[in-house]
């Protein structure tokens, strides 16, 4: 029990820490991402900053002036090149940390290795339970005063795929372009998903029932023919042996109909056969 309690306390502390931090996505070129980080710092309201860099390991490894795919190069050479990449990534992140230091903001760095930057961001948000995240809406060169939509493919992907509990702000050249509001917690997110699925299922059932009703009406000669049958009359005329010597009509698509409707259709069928028999017995 003590272990369980300690684990729950650690989870609560991690969630509180995530609430306090603002995660900011940056790129390999400090000059092109400085404005986004500066905006996040200026709007942090005292929160800690976590600088996130998604590192894409190179697939082509330089060897003797020529590049070869990593899968075809000796493992030792690949490992040595990966070490150089890591050292360069740390250097880039340290440059961003200095920007935060200059503004007297406490910051930390986080590097995630992933072949896809946008997928790396989505994964990072999920694994770290990120509640506040800032990233670019587009490159600074694309900014204009009329810009209101996301123009970056990465930004669009993150906006659509990231955890719904994360509050994401997309900025460009120091200007807020778009905000994706969060759903407060996982329970609300789950309920929202179930409601949407329920509405879709209800709409599907409604369309199916309408089609089946139309099909049934057509079989009996349309809505006018159906409405001309008196249910009380049906009840007074129908007997158990009415259809004993007659084949039933084609099977009807009754799945999804209420019990009352199915009973009405069966009784209507019996009545039609009864009337047909009576007509045949009348003298010409």
Brief account:
This protein is α/β, with parallel strands linked by helices and 284 residues long. The chain is built from 9 helices and 8 strands.
Overview of the structural elements:
Residues 195-227 are annotated as: Disordered. It catalyses: S-ubiquitinyl-[E2 ubiquitin-conjugating enzyme]-L-cysteine + [acceptor protein]-L-lysine = [E2 ubiquitin-conjugating enzyme]-L-cysteine + N(6)-ubiquitinyl-[acceptor protein]-L-lysine. Keywords: Ubl conjugation pathway. GO terms for molecular function: ubiquitin protein ligase activity. This is RING-type E3 ubiquitin transferase. 18% of the residues are buried. The termini are far apart. The longest helix has 34 residues, at 186-219. The protein has 9 helices and 8 strands. The chain has a domain at 21-185: Rossmann fold. It has 284 residues and is an alpha/beta fold. Strands 5-2-1-6-7-8 form a 6-stranded mixed β-sheet, with helices on both faces.
Intertermini distance = 93 Å
- Approximately how much helix is present in the residues? 40-55%
CATH class of the domain at 21-185: Alpha Beta
Q: What structural class is derived from the secondary structure elements?
A: alpha/beta
- SS elements, strand count: 8
The CATH homologous superfamily name of the domain at 21-185 equals HUPs
Rounded average pLDDT: 76
Strand order of the largest sheet: 5-2-1-6-7-8
Q: Can you tell me the CATH topology of the domain at 21-185?
A: Rossmann fold
The CATH architecture of the domain at 21-185 can be given as 3-Layer(aba) Sandwich
Order of helices and strands: HEHEEEHEHEHEEHHHH
Radius of gyration based on Cα positions: 34 Å
Strand content: 15-25%
Low-confidence stretches: 214-257
The outline comes out as elongated
Number of helices: 9
* Oligomer classification: single chain
Question: Biggest sheet: strands, sense, closure?
Answer: 6 strands, mixed
Biased composition (Low complexity): 207-227
Keywords: Ubl conjugation pathway
Organism: Brassica cretica
Region (Disordered): 195-227
